[in-house]
Amino acid sequence: MRFAITVAMFSMLAITPPALAQTSDWSRCYTGEGRVVDFKRDYINADTVVSACTRIINNTRESASNRANAYERRGVARAEKGEASLALADYNSALRLNANSPSALVNRGRIYLKRGEYDAALTDFDRAIRLDSGNPVAYVNRAVVRENKRDFDLAIHDYTRVIELFPEFAIAHAGRANVRYHKGEFDKALPDIERALQLGDSRSFTYNIRGLLMQRQNRIEDAMADYTTAIQLDPNHFYPLRNRAEIYNARGQHDLALADLERAVALDPTEALSYFKRAYTWEKKGDDDKAIADYTRAIQLNSQYEDAYYNRGVSHQKKGDYDTAIADYTKAIHINANYVGAYTARAALFEFKKQWAVAALDRAEIVRIQRNNPDAWNALCWAQAIAGQLAPALVSCTESLRLAPDRAYVIDSRGLAYLKMGEFDKAIADYTRAVELQPKMAISYYGRGIARGKQGDTVGRDADFATALALYANVAKDFEDYLAR
User: Fold this and answer.
1) How many beta carbons lie within 10 A of that of residue 130, not counting itself?
2) Whole-structure pTM value
3) How many CB atoms lie within 10 A of CB 249?
């Protein structure tokens, strides 16, 4: 399964109050009746800010500069209240009055960032940096955009620039650690996250990233401690809940995992990955119906979720609904033409349904993707041999043996191809070599028995049949199907 990039959200860029801030409305517009505004805890105060700023905006005697400041301040209050559209309109108004305000550009860019409009956000952050090249918040937010666009090197460059300007800016160290984690630079990420914590970054986000790094190092108890701390710091942060659930599942503590994932889903019902992980937990608890329901919800939220289609296919397969499972594997393949797991699962079901020629097509796709995999070549050889595609089967087995010589089950596969081609001497030679390498291989004894019988060696045939049946009672029935095509 794939890991979604965490969008670290940083505080709004501060707006410098004008000289008139000592007046009543300006005081309320900037500080909410003289107090530092904490919008997330005091929406009444935020409403006071909006009302005061609105009066300033509507005052025709105010200068354009002052009204621009008031628009921006009102936008900040509205953004923190969750009124993103109204905030965006205010930032636009502020920029019409003062096009060169770095803070308005950054704050508008953050709205675009939260909406996933990364190109628009990037344009605003680029412009803010051109206007104020020493602005750390603009760099940090641009780094977040670049991270979500998967421009990891550019994101690291932005965080590094902030650290050069402000070495003790903890958020930049944490942000760079996050990017390095997703880039796979785990050894570089760990010193960054440790430095952020040393500098006093006590955010849930930061402990969650360190938890991921601890988990990568198999320091599971340390990871659990970090995820738990992250949850305690911010009970509404669903990422550490999902990550802790993963450890619970690995330990077999599925009820604890389910409890965390129930919370994660409740916190953000639009997160496909939360449903995916809960579905996996239902699978582990043996409830395939609930697993299918959650995989389906994940797919509804993300129609290109290849792993959700694949896992739902597995759940349908366990319920015996093979055609539906094949349909899900097929959908996963349509999304990702190189999805080896889906080809393998679908091929196995086609083989179970005795549709060997179709299975061979899937085995050929796996070989296309994994040219140097001897097992893939052997699986293709076996499907081709049973399907009656004998010349291609010999090519596939030969390639498998070139990559990994003298493997009994590959030589057995080639023996079947020779047997069906009527080349009994070669079949006997391959089956003999197979049982030398693997003396308990019932199928090779039985195949050699058939070849010996075709040559008139009834004594050898009967001896081989007896040995095969002693090793595996159903070998004759299985071989019947192998020779049917």
Assistant:
1) 12
2) 0.83
3) 21
Contact yes or no for 69/53 (Cβ under 8 A): no
Residue with tokens 């179970």: 352
Distances from the Cα of 210 to the Cαs of 170, 188, 223, 477, in angstroms?
Answer: 14, 12, 7, 56
383 and 351 Cβ atoms separated by less than 8 Å: yes
441 secondary structure, DSSP code: -
Q: What would the pLDDT profile of 182-202 be if each residue is shown by its tens digit?
A: 999 999 999 999 999 999 999
Which amino acid makes up residue 377? W
- Could you give the CA distance from residue 363 to residue 380 in angstroms, rounded to a whole number? 5
Rounded Cα–Cα distance for residues 297 and 281 (Å): 15
Whether 14 contacts 103, CB under 8 Å: yes
What contacts 259, CB < 8 A, 6 or more positions away? none
Note whether 444 and 409 are within 8 A (CB): no
| DSSP annotation of 273 | H
Within 13 Å, how many C-alpha atoms sit on residue 8's CB side?
Answer: 29
Nearest to 17 by CA among 32, 3, 7: 32
CB atoms under 10 Å from CB of 477, counted, come to: 8
Short-list 423, 438, 437, 431, CA closest to 463: 431
Q: What is the C-alpha to C-alpha distance for residues 288 and 301, in angstroms, rounded to an integer? A: 20
> Which one-letter DSSP state was computed for residue 20?
G
Instruction: State the average pLDDT over residues 460-471.
Output: 97
* Burial class, 81, CB count within 10 angstroms (exposed 0-12 / middle 13-18 / buried 19+): middle
Task: Provide the b/e sequence for 197-210 (b: ≥16 CB within 10 Å).
Answer: bebebebbbbbbbb
Segments of 400-451 assigned E as strands: none
The structure tokens listed for 426 are: 């070669």
Q: How many CB atoms lie within 10 A of CB 456?
A: 9
CA–CA dist 170, 193 (Å, integer): 9
Task: Quote the tokens at residue 348.
Answer: 């196995």
pLDDT digits (tens, 9 = 90+) for 392-402: 999 999 999 99
Token reading at 346: 């679908």
Domains belonging to the chain, first-starting first, are: 406-485 (1.25.40.10)
Measuring CA to CA, which residue among 358, 333, 314, 331 is closest to residue 485?
A: 358
What residue type is 222 in one-letter code?
D
